[in-house]
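To whoever is covering the structure queue this week,

Two jobs came back overnight. Logging them here so there's a record in the thread.

Job A:
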Amino acid sequence: MPLLPDPDLVVQDVHKIAVLRAGGLGDFIFTLPALRALRETYPEAEITLLGGPLQTGLLEGRNEPVQHAITVPPSTGVNGPDTGVKEDKGALQSFFIRMKEERFDLALQMHGGGGYSNPFVSRLQARVTAGTRTPEAPPLDRTIPYVYHQSEVLRHLEVANLVGARTADLEPRLPIMNGDLAEAGCVVPNTDRPLVALHPGAGDPRRQWPPGKFAAVGDSLAEAGARVVIVGVEEDRALVSGIAATMRHEATDLCGRLSLAGLAGVLSRCAVVVSNDSGPLHLAGAVGAATVGIYWGPNLINAGPPTRARHRPALSWRSDCPVCGTTLFDNDCGHAVSVIADIPTGEVAEYALELFAPAGRDAV
């Protein structure tokens, strides 16, 4: 349901809007409510996402939530880390020339504290720029303070509100295309058994729950009548195959067999998705699956889902490194070991079965 825009902040005569969010998959999912707010407030405007290759690949062929998605060339602190990015100055110059020709009316920075991203957005030469800002970052026309510990969904909605855009719906939602479902159907044919997915990977090994615990949860769901699939990228192959081999019940190994669009199609068919805090977890929620997310507690502040009707977080509040005892809240000791291994298997299984039960009954 749309909210009335803030008339004091709405910009008049807006035809083109650019939004910068060039991080990972989950980063993009967190912008979806803000993009919807912009669409509801500026229904005649053309919205372009300036994103990373994962995001723009997922959006290819779609006209929602944005009309265009353009991949940002490698750029320090924007489409890569703060150091070590191999920038192509010529490619960046050509990119900004092309963006100037777009004649954006609004350019919104939804990409962190602004040290690198605010100068990037300023180079788009939009009529009005807006975004988050740390005290050291260059200013934009309209800013709010960047404070790290905040829900990313709410942060981006605050940025959208800098130009008067509002929405009543806080849930990230991504429309599913026929092509997504067609690819999914080729890999996982439809059956009468409700589908569930396990995603044991994570970009940071410290956010990985033990594979044996995933296997135990998969068995609990299989015993409740679920058809279990395990998803992951090529780097997760040993992890995924190990879980499938450990389970007492059959599970389908989908590692490396799906494009991101096909993964969205599979996840949209799932009654429940059990996953570490990762892009696929957030994608699953956006395409309509119930989710059990496995989090290190402080990360829930930024990445947790805003509602609980169909989403459950399982949390570890471990405060010290399992290897050296260094306090995790203030330091990075460099040990790449799980800090969420203490989350009980029974807790995750209970959440998953609770969410699965209605789907299981409907399928009988």
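Job B:
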Amino acid sequence: MKRRISAILTSLGLTLSLVSCGKTAESAEKTVKIAYLPITHSLAVLKEAQDLENQSGLKVELVKYGSWNELLDALNSGRVDGASVLIELAMKSKQEGIGIKAVALGHRDGNVIIVSNDIETAADLKGKTFAIPHRQSSHNILLNDALATAGLTTDDINVTELAPTEMPSALASGQIDGYCVAEPFGAMGVSLGAGKVLFSSEELWEDSLCCGLVLTDKFIDERPEDAKSFVEKYKEAGNSLDKETAKETAKKYLSQTDEVLDISLQWISYSNLDITEDTYNTLVEKVKEYGLSDTPPTYSDFVKNY
């Protein structure tokens, strides 16, 4: 009798274990891990995660990083299924053989050239120090575009790479004379009174591309329906981000004041996040012109539309 009871209990335990494992596997299968930085340029994916939090089906697991290099390492090594990332960095990874596709924009517009209060024109930047977050960025392209309005190039100034969080204080202390970076750090410089907007991105580069949503080829190939559903929900989330909703989402995920968010969200929008061939080809031309890459990936190789 004892042996029979023991056998029944063992069998029951195995059954419960298999059921539990099945639920865990099913849960994991319906989760997509997305890397992001805590910036307003990531709000569409943050809003999507929030919308799906209490719904059944696909769930977005947000993985926060403190720098683009950390995020790229996670993306390139396959530790996440996708990321909201500077599109030029993703293009570089694709060029180096990493299996990823850009599936949507992160936002539209939303970048500014911030300069110290004594600088009036782009010509005044000659001989000055200007900060960008990374050479492979739209911020670098926008800097080149701004300088070109005055017949200058980056050879005429001192370009330095700084962490976004350091830029407003560096401007305030006089360490740098201007910067261009993902929001809300431009707005922080304005809020501090340390600087002002010299150009908005749309003044320099109409329909500029900056951050993009990318997914790994592995996720797209192994879970095509989930990939399609994720991108569709992402675009819906972007379309729902009016200024009020964007601010509510930003306050949940970003440690910023109302004033900074109010300034920053004047410059950005999240609707119509498709990557068109024309806008991407303009980006490719600028990437080549300003020396970011000689052989960026083609639209057909890099962009996947849903």
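Note for Job B: Residues 2-29 form the longest helix (28 residues).

Please reply-all if you pick these up so we don't duplicate work.
Q.
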